[in-house]
Design a protein that fits this description.
Elements (H helix, E strand, L loop, with lengths): L8 H21 L3 H5 L9 H20 L31 H21 L12 H23 L22 E4 L2 E5 L15 E5 L2 E4 L5 H9 L11 H10 L7 E4 L2 E6 L2 E4 L11 H10 L7 H9 L54 E8 L19 E8 L15 E4 L8 E2 L3 E3 L1
Parallel strand pairs: 8-11
Antiparallel strand pairs: 1-4, 2-3, 4-12, 5-6, 6-7, 8-9, 9-10
Bound molecules: N,N,N-trimethyl-histidine and fe (iii) ion (FE).
Length: 434
């Protein structure tokens, strides 16, 4: 049984597409044209590539695949195929100029809304429960997060602003929470817009473990730095040690020391690193080393999801830590409402039944696990979303960040990246065997 009212799915699809486009518009109008065309880091595409790629994916899935229309501009498909050109090469391609890219994406959207109106949310799997529309809204929001990453990498004056999260009293609850052992249902077969890698629901047996009640904070991470953590080989995997030595890493990305204190650059503004905020912009190797230094370990992906979804009273897995209701502003810091994580201990209304906080939103949380398919996985609707990334090269991140919209974030949602990446909005929490 789907927790989402099927009669409202069309309205939700329209709403999700509109919300995504508003965000895209903001991220691509708050800087001048040269900043849209520039490559701010070889890790990222020019913003104008993301803009037209968003339109091109929407055209491909909603206009051509769902509605059977002909290609509007077949000559640009190759340019916006993420697999044809690596990000570092994209500035050299004959990209649509900003105005042209905007017009193309808007034209696709106009037609896609007609398709939405005329499509029955049933029949073939692509249109069942409006999946294709939900998938495209999620795709756009994922690129909106990618574009925010590019904004953070960009040098120059502040272009984006948002109110800060509400201050909260320092977190004073238990530092870790015992999650009892026993079976747990991981993944989903009922969430209508869940992507292929979240499916199907399946049972896993999880031994009891303890997990941090809140994400690791800047203050805690600074203690690791001050204790010489980056210079002590004992805490690092061989690959991690090699990586930090080669690249001279000694603190999270964007941090620099100024006399006795740590400062960081955040969307064009330099500030003192706030002690109570979840640590941000660490790679998997750093998260893993911190955990070992603390006498702990990263949670496995299964443990993370059990902490987030398992209701010990009913044995059921919830959609979110707080229940089945969609995320509201009282539950989690999502959707670029704020441009930073909220202090540790925020959102008590978003806690899991056992009291674990901030699992959803704030920072993506590195887990110990490789990105692998669930038993019974089938690629849908295309292998290049998940399947080609399965294996030991990528580590799983869970829970979403302040930068991701609720449509692309839930208890089952899986993200992944290379263990060296830290331009993403990544943090972590630690765990240990019970
Ligand atoms: C799921 C965030 C790893 O950005 O590479 C966007 C999302 N896939 N377009 C990525 C995605 C295709 C993907 N991540
Ligand atoms: Fe994409």
């Amino acid at each position: 049984r789907s927790p989402i009212d099927p009669d409202r799915l069309k309205e939700r699809a329209l709403d999700a597409l509109t919300t995504a486009r508003d965000r895209t518009a903001l991220l691509t109008t708050c800087v001048e044209e040269p900043d849209l065309m520039a490559q701010h880091s070889p890790l990222m595409s020019p913003l104008v590539w993301d803009l037209a790629h968003i339109g091109n994916q929407e055209e491909l899935w909603l206009l051509r695949t769902v509605a059977g229309r002909d290609a509007m501009r077949p000559e640009i498909d190759g340019i916006y195929d993420a697999f044809e050109h690596p990000r570092s090469e994209r500035p050299t391609l004959p990209l649509l100029a900003p105005e042209e890219a905007r017009r193309y994406a808007a034209e696709v959207r106009g037609r896609a809304l007609d398709v939405l109106e005329n499509t029955r949310f049933e029949g073939r799997r692509l249109t069942q429960a409006g999946f294709a529309f939900g998938m495209i809204a999620q795709h756009e929001q994922q690129h909106d997060e990618t574009m925010l990453i590019t904004h953070q990498l960009r040098r120059g004056p502040q272009a984006l602003t948002a109110p800060d999260p509400e201050p909260v009293p320092p977190y004073a609850g238990p530092s870790e929470i015992l999650v009892p052992g026993g079976p747990f249902t991981m993944g989903t077969s009922t969430e209508p817009w869940a992507l292929d890698n979240e499916r199907p629901a399946h049972e896993r047996l999880v031994p009891a473990f303890r997990i941090d009640a809140v994400p690791v904070t800047n203050a805690a991470y600074q203690a690791f730095i001050e204790d010489g953590g980056y210079g002590d080989e004992r805490w690092w995997t061989p690959e991690g040690w090699e990586h930090i030595r080669t690249h001279g890493l000694e603190a999270p990305l964007y941090w620099h020391r100024d006399g006795g204190q740590w400062l960081r650059r955040r969307f064009g503004v330099t500030e003192v690193v706030p002690p109570d905020e979840p640590v941000l912009h660490v790679c998997w190797y750093e998260a893993d080393a911190y955990a070992r230094w603390a006498g702990r370990r990263l949670p496995t992906e299964t443990e993370w999801e059990k902490a987030a979804r398992h209701d010990p009273e009913t044995g059921r897995s919830r959609r979110y830590p707080w229940g089945d209701a969609d995320p509201g502003p009282e539950h989690a810091n999502l959707g670029q409402r704020h441009l930073r994580p909220a202090p540790a201990g925020s959102y008590p209304a978003g806690a899991s039944p056992l009291g674990v906080r901030q699992l959803i939103g704030d920072v993506w949380e590195w887990t110990a696990s490789d990105f692998l398919p669930y038993p019974g996985f089938t690629a849908f609707p295309y292998k290049e979303y998940s399947e080609v990334f399965f294996g030991s090269e990528h580590k799983v991140l869970r829970g979403g960040s302040f930068a991701v919209d609720p449509v692309a974030c839930r208890g089952t949602f899986r993200n992944w990246d290379y263990p060296i990446r830290r331009q993403i909005f990544s943090g972590f929490r630690t765990a240990r065997d019970a």
